[in-house]
Amino acid sequence: MAKTDSKKFPNKFPTIQQCESKGRQDHTVVADMDGTLLVGRSSFPYFALVAFEVGGIFRLLFLVLASPLAGLLYYFISESAGIRVLIFATFVGMKVSDIESVARAVLPKFYSSDLHPETWRVFSSCGKRCVLTANPRIMVEAFLKEYLGVDMVIGTEICTYKGRATGFVNEPEILVGENKAKALQKAFGSKSAPHIGIGDRKTDFPFMNLCKESYIVRPVPGVKPMNQDKLPKPIVFHDGRLVQKPDPLMALLIILWIPVGFLLACLRIAAGALLPMPLVYYAFWTLGVRVKVKGYPPPQAQKSTGQTGVLFICSHRTLLDPIFLSTALGRPIPAVTYSLSRLSEIISPIKTVRLSRDRVTDANMIKKLLEEGDLVICPEGTTCRESFLLRFSALFAELTDELVPVAMSNKMSMFHGTTARGWKGMDPFYFFMNPSPSYEVTFLNKLPYDLTCRAGKSSHDVANYIQRTIAATLSYECTNFTRKDKYRALAGNDGTVTPKNGLAQKKVMGC
């Protein structure tokens, strides 16, 4: 590779639109990240996500207060100094394992929604892919390697001490300007220059000049990020509380809204828990919670006539699904669940019954509950945020032929009402902290008896049929992913928690 000479950089590189992407299978590409591989030129939103998901509202506030200083240094002193402030404000004192967890479970969703279509056209066409970025490698590596098939990630290395980040960085310091070029030379050696270098600003010129071909990604207003369905690997699972990417203004709004939103959430939860169920629907509307009901639910079971209850089979979006089903029906419907926090059980306006995941025990419990009336179950076993349905457990199909599929969907503008890594007791609060959350409950036709186990169908066939029916209603995609798949992807475990209760211990499965 040629020696860099900052005085000989060309003032203008060809634009990325001029780069031919065909026949690049044997080529190596090196690209910057912010403003190049991503449409957005600012890394603040991703630092803000780490700050909030690991450190909470006060860490996010610290970052927001530090951001004017970071911007001043970045634009008027040096790019490196500005990034140092962001790294310090975000990472100081954090556990490295927590940062890695957020990088694996939270950031990919936001990164994938901001991919630059022209850069990706070229980047994805090359056989070997490298990303060279000033961002901390710990933040970006999981997404780049797992979802974009990147072979090598060269980024700023944060300094750690006893498993915690110090807020400082290791040599060779922040990877900008000449430091990027030196890092590229070290990674590729002096004889194997990358075929393509892609950047978006003057401080990328040093490493771009080392590549056989160099292209610039110029900021063009109105460029729309690439559709996520073109990713090599779809993002089915993701975690984190924030719905939108928090730019500085959004981060400030979140900080200001949380105290107000928490009080509003308490009021909404109290209305749902204390008012008679026929009035909850109207109370929710008054308090800004929208509930839309479609389809025709079956009549209420009458125990006096010997009619057993129906089993409502719901898609699982949050742990509030059974509550909004009851709201739509105007009467409380008991729910069986694999796991609930004690707080969620206390504030729940409906009866909740925990399943043990022992088939015989659970089957007997469900049969007994159905003899008393209607019942609701979410056979996915855990929630999924994206437009996918996880594999349905087939146990419910073996217990009754009175099956009513229910398609549940919801919309949240600020906070997600689910978590895999955090405390689930806050899930209902975060859902109701949204300014105007909504739920849509669609009752489908009761399953004909000739499609149930009574007609000789296997329980797996029945479960798969109902899954496909609900998916078609919601325009979702069916998958074979399970609860364990979700927790392995997001939390690095299979969702099993072993709490202590005196001397006794029992396994409880995360929801």
From TrEMBL:
Membrane topology: Multi-pass membrane protein
Annotated EC: 2.3.1.15
Domain Phospholipid/glycerol acyltransferase: 310-411
Pfam families: Acyltransferase, HAD_RAM2_N
SMART domains from the UniProt entry: PlsC
Catalytic activity: sn-glycerol 3-phosphate + an acyl-CoA = a 1-acyl-sn-glycero-3-phosphate + CoA
Molecular functions (GO terms): glycerol-3-phosphate 2-O-acyltransferase activity; glycerol-3-phosphate O-acyltransferase activity; phosphatase activity
GO BP term, pick one: response to symbiotic fungus
Alphabetized PANTHER family for the sequence: ANCIENT UBIQUITOUS PROTEIN, PHOSPHOLIPID_GLYCEROL ACYLTRANSFERASE DOMAIN-CONTAINING PROTEIN
Function: Involved in the production of cutin monomers. Esterifies acyl-group from acyl-ACP to the sn-2 position of glycerol-3-phosphate, a step in cutin biosynthesis. Required for colonization of the root by mycorrhizal fungi, and appropriate hyphopodia and arbuscule formation. Cutin monomers act as plant signals that promote colonization by arbuscular mycorrhizal fungi. This signaling function has been recruited by pathogenic oomycetes to facilitate appressoria formation and their own invasion.
UniProt name for this protein: Glycerol-3-phosphate acyltransferase RAM2
Species of the source: Anisodus acutangulus
